[in-house]
Hints:
By secondary structure, the protein is of the alpha+beta class. The chain has two helices and ten strands. It has a single domain, classed as 2,3-Dihydroxybiphenyl 1,2-Dioxygenase, domain 1. A four-stranded mixed sheet has the order 1-4-3-2, with helices on one face. A hairpin with a 2-residue loop joins strand 5 (64-67) and strand 6 (70-73).
Amino acid sequence: MSDSKIPRFHLAFPVKELEKTMTFYRDLLGCKTGRSSEKWIDFDFWGHQVVAHVSPEDAGKSASNEVDGHAVPAKHFGVILEWDEFHELADRLKEHEINFVIEPYVRFEGKPGEQATMFLLDPSGNALEFKSFRDESQIFAK
C-alpha cells in the first residue's frame, strides 16, 4: 500500500462514534485496523496512520472554498491513488450509493497536472478527497 521510501503521515481526527466509523473505513474503504480503545481507533490509510478519536462536538465541521465551480470542504484529508485504483474505489463507492460532496471527475484534462478527484463525507461528516494523477510526475505541476 505504501512506498517505504516516502515518510508516512499521522493524522488524528474527530468522529461522532466508533462503530459507524469502523464500518466506513474498514469495510467500505478497505483500511486495516490497528490499536483501539473505547475512545479511538487506528486505521492503516494506504500506509499512513490515521486515528479516529471520539469527539462528537468537533466532528464534521468545515467551511468550504470554491474550486473549479465546486464547493470544496476547506478541512479535508485523503490520499493520491494509482489511476486504476482511484476508478475502482469510485465504482465501489457508487455501488454503495455514497453521496458525494463532489462526484468523481477529471480536472485539467490534457493539461499539466491532469487528475481525477472526488470528495465524500465519512459518517461523522469529515470530508475526504481521493485523487489520482494520470502522470504522477505532475503532482506539483503549475
